[in-house]
Amino acid sequence: MTKALRTLWAEPRPANPPRRVWRDWALLGVAVAASLIEAVLRPDRTWLLAALVVSGVVAVAVLWRRTQPLAAVAVAFGTLIVFDVARIVASDATGLASIALALVLPYALLRWGSGREAVIGLGIILVWVSVTLVAVPTTVPEVVAGYGFFLFSAALGAAIRFHATTRMREIEQAELRQRHELARDLHDTIGHYMSGIVIQAQAGRALAASDPDRALAVLETIEQAATRVLAEMRTIVGVLRVGAEPDLAPQPGLADIERFARAAGTPRIEVDLSDLHDLPAEVSVALYRIAQEALTNTMRHACNVTRVHIDVVGDVDRVRLTVRDDGVPTPAGGARAGYGLVSMRERATLLGGTFHAGPTAGGGWQVEAMLPRVGATS
């Protein structure tokens, strides 16, 4: 309980409260006009000028209900408390019905105030309700109704604030998921091609003096990879641009693993794909991206690799992808740490699957992902 109260007390104000608009000034005008009409029509004119001043103060305070909710409550209800105390001590005069506009202040206090302001402001409001019930003798149902009106207004403000805060958090979480997905796609696509370009460039430099023809072939491979990188970048930029038409071309999937394996060239890559039908698109894309990143890690971090085996098997419930190589991890990348493993693990976990990567008993490195065939489970 103490922790909850501390959390409430430390709650900040919501960001960017709405600005004052013409409707606020219209509300002020209606409240002032109603007060004047009531003052003219009412037969009891005791303390009429004071009642008009109080109604005017409440109406003006409402203008600051969003930007300065505690100050608005303190001014409006502080004035009402002074007026009601004076009524108790010196006169039985009544106030104007237009002070009912003060009902919007508890709502604004809980909607736009900080936790500290909400606690202090509610205390001021409850003090006024108690004082006014003394100034105007009432029955028990009227007492309950008096407290109920203002507490309901405060509860409504708190409920709308909670809904708005929850909605904002959902939007932030969705944006965070989109950023993570974009980071994974950038790493798994652009990173894959760039790694190939770096390796091919190193090979071309080594061959430039001894075998110019092979070096030229390497340059052609680099050109093709760079062209694919540019195409991927255009696709990503097109998605990020506001108002741009989305690229509706299908994403690569399980059937494309053999294609990118052939494009990789060396080392020798063997691909065994089971006859898997009706795989959900998200599962097929995840298998492709994990296999692609595993191959990129092999090219980047292992040495003396002569063979890579990619194996995909499945049953009615699950699909297993295994990527094994016979290389030796380099000292700098012995654990193959970095965003690659994080990206592959995230892809498997988001679909409710499992992921494991590490050295094998017979030497080399193995990546294994087990995904549910039905797709995402959470």
UniProtKB/TrEMBL annotation:
<keyword id="KW-0808">Transferase</keyword>
<feature type="transmembrane region" description="Helical">
    <location>
        <begin position="47"/>
        <end position="64"/>
    </location>
</feature>
<keyword id="KW-0547">Nucleotide-binding</keyword>
<keyword id="KW-0472">Membrane</keyword>
<keyword id="KW-0067">ATP-binding</keyword>
<protein>
    <recommendedName>
        <fullName>histidine kinase</fullName>
        <ecNumber>2.7.13.3</ecNumber>
    </recommendedName>
</protein>
<keyword id="KW-0418">Kinase</keyword>
<dbReference type="GO" id="GO:0000155">
    <property type="term" value="F:phosphorelay sensor kinase activity"/>
</dbReference>
<feature type="transmembrane region" description="Helical">
    <location>
        <begin position="95"/>
        <end position="112"/>
    </location>
</feature>
<dbReference type="Pfam" id="PF02518">
    <property type="entry name" value="HATPase_c"/>
</dbReference>
<feature type="transmembrane region" description="Helical">
    <location>
        <begin position="21"/>
        <end position="41"/>
    </location>
</feature>
<keyword id="KW-0597">Phosphoprotein</keyword>
<feature type="domain" description="Signal transduction histidine kinase subgroup 3 dimerisation and phosphoacceptor">
    <location>
        <begin position="179"/>
        <end position="242"/>
    </location>
</feature>
<dbReference type="InterPro" id="IPR036890">
    <property type="entry name" value="HATPase_C_sf"/>
</dbReference>
<keyword id="KW-0902">Two-component regulatory system</keyword>
<dbReference type="InterPro" id="IPR003594">
    <property type="entry name" value="HATPase_dom"/>
</dbReference>
<dbReference type="Pfam" id="PF07730">
    <property type="entry name" value="HisKA_3"/>
</dbReference>
<feature type="domain" description="Histidine kinase/HSP90-like ATPase">
    <location>
        <begin position="284"/>
        <end position="373"/>
    </location>
</feature>
<dbReference type="GO" id="GO:0005524">
    <property type="term" value="F:ATP binding"/>
</dbReference>
<dbReference type="InterPro" id="IPR050482">
    <property type="entry name" value="Sensor_HK_TwoCompSys"/>
</dbReference>
<dbReference type="GO" id="GO:0016020">
    <property type="term" value="C:membrane"/>
</dbReference>
<dbReference type="GO" id="GO:0046983">
    <property type="term" value="F:protein dimerization activity"/>
</dbReference>
<feature type="transmembrane region" description="Helical">
    <location>
        <begin position="144"/>
        <end position="164"/>
    </location>
</feature>
<dbReference type="InterPro" id="IPR011712">
    <property type="entry name" value="Sig_transdc_His_kin_sub3_dim/P"/>
</dbReference>
<keyword id="KW-1133">Transmembrane helix</keyword>
<feature type="transmembrane region" description="Helical">
    <location>
        <begin position="71"/>
        <end position="89"/>
    </location>
</feature>
<keyword id="KW-0812">Transmembrane</keyword>
<feature type="transmembrane region" description="Helical">
    <location>
        <begin position="119"/>
        <end position="138"/>
    </location>
</feature>
